Amino acid sequence: PSGAPVEVPRPVNMPLGMKDTSSQGEDEPDDDPVPGVATGEEILRHKDFADLADADAQALKRMFEALAPIASPRRSRRYRHHKTGVTDPHRSIREAMCHGGEMSHLQFRNRRERPRKLVILGDISGSMAPYTDPILRFAHAAVRRNPMHTEVFTLGTRLTRVTRELRQRDPEKALKAAGQAIPDWSGGTRLGEMLRAFLDRWGQRGMARRAIVVVFSDGWERGDPSLLGEQMARLHRLAYKVIWANPHKGHDGYQPLTGGIQAALPSIDEFVAGHSFDSYARLARLITAA
């Protein structure tokens, strides 16, 4: 009959519970979210630190607290008894002697694991001013996760060790203490001289040996680039891995043309971006997987 409702047949291959939208009018609103639309936090993850507003900076502080940049453990030369691994001949023989010389089952051993050191060297010169706060927040997250095996230094016209200040649990108090300890904010930078000072006083004595060393810098060197190249080669011989995070590398069309970067590149294992929270999250994963 003309007044009876017409039942639209369900397509054969349509699963039960799925809504058929083939007969919907164009003016009906779509309740499903539009795929590919990023949330505010996702947009913030990829935003350059230099372009952040005050509200963005507040949200970013909470995101940094969730980072966990922990260096992967390293294998020691010493062994320990284990259920699997390589055969332990001495323990196997002792076990056999306890059973009348009969070798009932083999004993095994594995290398012990020790925490690997993480050293962070942050450039706080004037050209790095928009990125110094994120650098220290990243360093604070690293120190908070592994306070006994993480060291933090700032590089400018002086070399300043701020590890003790960043061991405070509260990030705002830690950054305030670090800021009070750093005498050369937003000045020039002599990367080669500061790196030599670090290696002479701390690195050569063991702090950089078999460690993961992360350098945050744009590579603008006021001193002699050849000195930076020499000290980077020296650092590379000591460290397990050298990672250089440059904020400009995250920009389209970037080319490592500055003298400092050109001198340092041969001694860098990983050259990564350091301009956004997403790049710092990738760096944290890289440190853990190293």
Notes on the structure:
- By secondary structure, the chain is an alpha/beta fold.
- The chain is built from 10 helices and 9 strands.
- The protein has helices at residues 40-45, 54-64, 89-97, 129-145, 163-166, 171-181, 191-207, 225-238, 259-264, 277-289, and strands at 74-82, 86-87, 108-114, 118-123, 150-155, 159-161, 212-216, 241-246, 270-273.
- The strands form 2 sheets. Strands 6-5-4-7-8-9 form a 6-stranded mixed sheet, sandwiched between helices.
- β7 (212-216), α8 (225-238) and β8 (241-246) form a beta-alpha-beta unit.
- α4 crosses α6 (171-181) and α7 (191-207) packs parallel to α8.
- It starts with 39 loop residues before the first helix and ends with a helix.
- Residues 10-38 have low confidence and may be disordered.
Layout of helices and strands, plus pairs?
Layout: H1 40-45, H2 54-64, E1 74-82, E2 86-87, H3 89-97, E3 108-114, E4 118-123, H4 129-145, E5 150-155, E6 159-161, H5 163-166, H6 171-181, H7 191-207, E7 212-216, H8 225-238, E8 241-246, H9 259-264, E9 270-273, H10 277-289
Parallel strand pairs: 4-5, 4-7, 7-8, 8-9
Antiparallel strand pairs: 1-3, 2-3, 5-6
